[in-house]
Amino acid sequence: MSDQDDAKSYKATLNLPETEFPMRGDLVKREPARLEGWESSDLYEKIIAKRKAADAPCYVLHDGPPFANGDVHMGTALNKVLKDLVMKSKSMAGYECPYIPGWDCHGLPIEFKVVKESKGLEPAEIRRRSEAFAREYIDIQRKSFRRLGVLGDWENPYLTLAPEYEADIIRVFATLVEKGLVYQSKKPVQWSYGAQTALAEAEVEYEDVKDIAIYVKFPLVTGDHAGDASMVIWTTTPWTLPANLGIAVHPRFTYLKGEFTHAEKGLTERFIIVKELVETFGAKTGFLPSGELEEIKGETLAGAEAQHPFLDRTSKVILAEFVTTETGTGAVHIAPGHGSDDYLAGQQNDLGLLSPVDDLGNYTDEVGVPELIGQHVHESNIPIIKILAGKEALVGKEKYLHSYPHCWRSKTPIIFRSVPQFFIRIDELRETALGEIDRVDWLPHWGRNRIHGTVESRPDWCISRQRTWGVPLPVFYMPGEELPDINADLARKVADLTESGGTNLWFEHDDAWWAEKLGLPEGTRRCTDTLDVWIDSGSSHVAVMDRHPELSCPADLYLEATDQHRGWFQSSLMLSVAVRDAAPYKTVMTHGFVVDQDKKKISKSAAQKAGKPVDAAYFYNKYGADILRLWVSSVDWQNEVPFGEDLFKQTAEPYRRFRNTLRILLANLHDFDAAKDAVGPDEMTLVDRWIMERLNEVIAECEAAYEAFEFRKVFNTLNQFCAVDLSAFYVDITKDRMYCDAPDSVRRRATQTTMHVVFESLVKLIAPILAFTADEAWEYAGHDTSIHLETFPEPREAFNGSAATEAIEQLTRLRDLAQVAIDAAVKSEAFKKRERAAVQFALPADDPARPVLANSGEEALEFLMVSKFMVEDATGEAGASVMVTDEEECPRCRRSLSVSATTGLCDRCDDVMSSS
RNA sequence: CCUACCGUAGCUCAAGAGUAGAGUGUUCGACUGAUAAUCGAGAGGUUGAGGGUGCGAAUCCUUCCGGUAGGACCA
Fold first, then answer.
1. Among A230, A547, A733, A780, which one has the highest count of C-beta atoms within 10 angstroms of its own C-beta?
2. What's the pLDDT score for residue A577?
3. Is the CB of A816 under 7 A from strand B?
């Protein structure tokens, strides 16, 4: 027999690892099949039922409804997977975790698309098409969320378009009315002429634009300075000048009056300009002071009237604290119909109100200048500047770069415009809301300041929209009345009528039908507005949490992206404070946006142009949902989340590590039956006890990290454990006994017992993240129910100490010491394998490794993976030298130990062979 | 302009007063009994910059620079 044949024949006598669990994930193929299994066996319901049976406490994460348009992109996927990580980990921590997903269905974005496709539709038809559109995307998104392994009640999600949900929205409105929080008023709102509706603060996005700012002269005609000087205002919106009714100055600022000369034009004028800005004014307009300047206190100017530059009326000088000396002239153009500060100032000073602009943004007759009527305001800046120039009222102009609000849908600039709108009085709610904010846990902590800031300063909430695809504003105008009857009882009746039929009734029937149904006099008209969609989603704590028996309010957790501080968190808070005087949540967690690798915002269109996929489907179809889930777990959700395919791929490698670690454990357990073969802690060897101690730490760390939603820490801890402790050490060191010991030797069984515990613990700890892979491994381990029904492992008390860990630390020290010498020897070709090394350690007398070596001779040898070692006394530092061993290599186990002269095998292998 | 958070190896991130560590990538090597796997080694960091307090600072304080987000201004 040749040596080679020897080796071959002995291979058959080994217990090599064996498993059907595939090394390659093939996730794209396997996950859908597993998913089908989960759904056909009602896994979600089973988990809930199991926790219920165990009388588990509830943990409620209330799902924020994504908008039902568009595919699921990485940002949405991040949000849903984070939620699922929370739910799966809470469930494994022993809670009952009902998860009712929802969708936000009404609103401008959908109506916009529908209307764009075909114009001139009846409202009822717009609504039919909008609903079809929403439902189509709900299905698309639901499919994606399920594919990502997110478990929940997908067959019964909440939809804000559901009749019973709509009815609850109207009931919330009725409650607001009852509490006297709703009023109608004509004051300036942010108006999108592109979408022809008022907008809420959260529907506005800012863009940098270049405008022309102008300086305009208003000659004083009454007061101390009548005929003697002109006020000069500065504005970036010349189109608001026709609505000018006042000029505001700061009461405590000092203004200078005197002669200003424009040298080039040869013009001399008498102006009143705030002291601090005279220089800037000169630089921008060319008008420099050319004589003595008289100081005037702002407050003394009040009440004077100035001539409007091109209209036959005067503009009153008023006082206002908001005037600054940053830009302009210290005199602020006031158009009460076109700005909120302006509006308030106008109210306080009885200026009246002008808003000569229609829904489309065109001037109405009221504008007072014939050639402007019908002109669009944003095409009127130049004509107005020309008019001003013609009247010699234009003092100067400059280009001005600033951020200007735009409609989030139509992308057109927003104008402030006054039309009758409905509002919620925020002042009545503010104090309670602010108090509640401090009772809520905000994660990360600075979320508290963010929402506190917005609630503190937000103006009254404009809740009416001049749109069709939404819940109608349930308000009526009695015959002959200008003002609406805002009536809670009527609203409740509307709610009851729509409970089954839905609010389509509002659009399908006419005023007469409704008047009759509600017992109102003939000639009653309905309000044609719809409610702001933030009322829809903000009412979910009533329409969902109060309605579902398994949920309850306040929820334990709301979890959305940071933009919801202004959006859903706030609308929910306000409505909840109005309805129940308390916040609807105990904890609010926010995550950052998914941004491009170079930290630029991912807009879908820009990413597509650059050929960078951002659709979740692209990634789960190419890499698998578990890779995506692992990526989510590895990410720092508190800040912006940089994303790109390269970054994404980095998590594929750790995935393989997890998978292979589970696989080798499984493979080493192929002939192990815990019920029959497990041994007690006393039988375990040093490395077994060490890995059990490590496992206890890992369990504690992971469970604490899950508790704190620090998934990345779970990821790091487990990755480290698999890569370093298991793969590089434990599995490597125990190979010899696993493969070469007699199958049921105590030593081998002890290690199998350990591996069994490690496997079961590891697979459970990773299950919330690798939802599919963990379940697959669990199945291969012989379980016929899902891993997701399990709970997290408990640390084992027997291994709570650190005795084994301390011993292993010493051995690791020696191993590192030996490694250096071995590497040198291998390099100089003294021998090739570390197993051929004989190591001579030189240790000081008090070296802590000495007792370890003395107490665990054979195990130390195994751990060091060398042929033999000796210890000699060292005077200085510990060291190691190495030479080739004089032992023969056992052909069966390939270790270099003393071998039998007759069989050529080492003692252990000899025993195994002769007894088999 | 104000406020908050952040800035550590090519990349993604750990350590939160006591010799800067992982993963990934990269280079080299071993094994062929975890094999489209596994093991070992190397290279790679004056921890954004400067100053301060400590015996000692990535860590605490301060100024600046850069990034991001809110807010202010504007509307």
1. A230
2. 93
3. yes
